[in-house]
Task: inverse folding
């Protein structure tokens, strides 16, 4: 029994550390920026723990002051989390209230709509924080890698929603946009800090090489690799067969048909009759026809599969656009917000035309979404891959300017990027990825895709120039691999957004591509444009970048987890780009692991393992609770030497491995 108690306490100790760290992620706290009265005298154990937790963050003062103000002297993870969520909810609700007050004072219609969007986006950010909290309530150490991956993606989503609120003030009058920026400044800093802490914890646990942290994933990958069926919770075998069947053979739950041969004649009517928050997959079949509707698949429509008769036969179309006064966010003909969404054999369109500027065909803000054999047609901003993890296979996306954009972690395989004829004073850009923070696990990966001109644009392709992409935000990340790049793309490949903005911090890479414009000799020579060997490209493959083996492969649609073609061997004559900190910042770094192990300790007595309390134990010089440290020293230890670091880290790994 004593051994079981020790093991239980060890698990609880790590869980406590992770829970406390998450306070940083979920706290959208006060905006007091006065640091002159910061007390640098001896602090309590709780404050030392907070300082340790805040160490790897970019906004340390914000991190420390917020937690000290809200958590008091508590070391109980439960109390810390409760305090964090209370201030989070209050802060976001206050921001939403402020946007309402500002909205009532505005006369400019575009500003009013932007403020209305901010209320909606604030609510979505809070939902991401709440589901991160719920994930911790069902803490399972054997599944901690998936848990941390989910939290990274959701925190990234929360940060993106706040930024989207600010983006909505483009073209708006007055100072409302600046007031909202000030209102969201601290919350965005704290969300960034949360990503820093989760990345730090993730990298440490990975470095420990715990069987519970590594073997489960390896076992799962091995089973999937040998063709054995693993049924994820979000798709049952009966529904999965629908993805392999021809549309005419599908037996759906509801049918939409314009000719009256189904259950409903419009898509929106059908959506009102779908069970909300369903745990089983629900199949909606939309028969051939052109449906002129603005459709939103809301967040409570989970596990929904939508199947059409083909992307040129089943079409959903609209014309909302920026020039006519609609914010880009709400120009989408179709918005997908419910997680585990699958669409197959459907065409989506915004037919506003190039003169109407931003006009989105589809906006995707749902996690683990799949689009198979779909068309996305528009001009500027066609596909808004907004947030979370997304997979596109055998799809066609057409447009003129930034027609694949957003801040999701999206993989497009075997897709066609078809450039259309723009206005005579415009040039075409395929991608505009919008990663704001280097720790966000997001980016666009285009694998075995084709970059081509549509027939109307083809004669003008040398006159009206086209580019692979440009940086919408500071840490924009796009990887194009194993793809065909036709002669419409300019030799420079990439286009600047505005002067030197983001040219040093973006991350663009091309790998093993083919076609007339695949030659990189004349590519843009920015610091952010990388030359990578296959070993550094592997992390952007679907199996790793979006964890596709655990949710895409199980859907039984065509899918490649790794390279499609044999990658070229590393060439000694090629000058590969050095590894910059930004390249792996979303994964954590060795340096951050060392810092995590060897921070200044809190001088406290060891906790009693027989106690029923679940209060967080004090942190030791290893940055871990005493139950997980090689030695639970009662007094601070000096900063170890590098030799000591390696030896102690090894001891720590062996101890935890023995516990497991």
Result:
């Amino acid at each position: 029994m004593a051994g079981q108690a020790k093991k239980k306490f060890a698990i609880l100790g790590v869980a406590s550390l992770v829970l406390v760290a998450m306070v940083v992620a979920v706290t959208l706290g006060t905006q007091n920026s006065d640091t002159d009265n910061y007390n640098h005298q001896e602090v309590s154990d709780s404050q030392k723990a907070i300082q340790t937790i805040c160490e790897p963050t970019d906004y340390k003062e914000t991190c420390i002051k917020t937690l000290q103000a809200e958590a008091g002297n508590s070391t109980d993870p439960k109390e810390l989390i409760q305090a964090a969520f209370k201030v989070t909810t209050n802060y976001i609700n206050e921001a939403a209230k402020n946007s309402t007050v500002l909205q009532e004072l505005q006369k400019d219609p575009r500003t009013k709509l932007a403020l209305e969007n901010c209320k909606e986006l604030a609510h979505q950010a809070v939902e991401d924080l709440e589901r991160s909290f719920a994930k911790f309530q069902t803490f399972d150490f054997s599944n901690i890698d998936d848990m941390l991956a989910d939290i990274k993606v959701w925190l990234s989503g929360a940060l993106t929603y706040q930024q989207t609120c600010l983006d909505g003030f483009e073209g708006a009058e007055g100072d409302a946009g600046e007031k909202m920026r000030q209102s969201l400044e601290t919350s965005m800093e704290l969300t960034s800090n949360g990503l820093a802490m989760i990345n730090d914890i993730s990298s440490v646990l990975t470095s420990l090489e715990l069987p519970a942290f590594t073997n489960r994933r390896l076992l799962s990958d091995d089973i999937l690799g040998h063709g054995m069926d693993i049924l994820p919770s979000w798709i049952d075998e009966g529904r999965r067969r629908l993805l392999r069947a021809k549309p005419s053979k599908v037996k759906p739950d509801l049918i939409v048909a314009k000719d009256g041969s189904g259950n409903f004649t419009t898509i929106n009517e059908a959506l009102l009759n779908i069970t909300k928050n369903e745990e089983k997959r629900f199949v909606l079949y939309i028969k051939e026809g052109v449906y002129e509707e603005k459709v939103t698949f809301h967040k409570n429509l989970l596990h929904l599969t939508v199947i059409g008769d083909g992307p040129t036969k089943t079409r959903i179309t609209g014309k909302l656009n920026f020039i006519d006064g609609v914010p880009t966010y709400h120009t989408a003909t179709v918005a997908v917000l419910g997680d585990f969404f699958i669409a197959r054999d459907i065409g989506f369109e915004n037919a506003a035309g190039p003169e109407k500027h931003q006009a989105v065909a589809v906006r995707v803000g749902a996690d683990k979404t799949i689009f198979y054999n779909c068309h996305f047609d528009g001009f500027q901003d066609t596909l808004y891959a907004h947030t979370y993890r997304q997979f596109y296979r055998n799809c066609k996306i057409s447009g003129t300017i930034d027609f694949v954009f957003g801040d999701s972690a999206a993989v497009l395989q075997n897709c066609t990027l078809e450039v259309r004829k723009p206005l005579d004073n415009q040039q075409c850009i395929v991608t505009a990825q919008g990663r704001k923070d280097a720790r966000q696990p997001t980016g666009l990966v285009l694998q075995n895709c084709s970059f081509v001109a549509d027939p109307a644009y083809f004669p003008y392709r040398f006159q009206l120039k086209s580019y692979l992409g440009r940086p919408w935000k500071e840490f924009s990340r796009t990887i194009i691999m194993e793809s065909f790049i036709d002669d419409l793309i300019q030799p420079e490949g990439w286009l600047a957004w505005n002067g030197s903005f983001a040219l040093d911090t973006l991350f663009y890479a091309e790998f093993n591509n083919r076609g007339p414009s695949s030659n990189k000799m004349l590519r843009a020579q920015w610091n952010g444009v990388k030359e990578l060997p296959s070993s550094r490209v592997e992390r952007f493959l679907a199996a790793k970048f979006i964890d596709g083996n655990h949710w895409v492969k199980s859907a039984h649609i065509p899918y490649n987890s790794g390279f499609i073609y044999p990658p070229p061997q590393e060439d000694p004559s090629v000058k590969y780009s050095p590894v910059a900190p930004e390249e792996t910042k979303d994964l954590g770094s060795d340096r951050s692991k060392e810092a995590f192990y060897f921070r200044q300790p809190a001088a406290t007595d060891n906790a009693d393992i027989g106690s029923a309390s679940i209060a967080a134990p004090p942190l030791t010089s290893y940055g871990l609770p005493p139950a997980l440290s090689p030695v639970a020293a009662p007094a601070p230890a000096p900063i170890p030497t590098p030799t000591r670091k390696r030896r102690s880290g090894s001891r720590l790994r062996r101890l935890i491995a023995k516990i497991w």
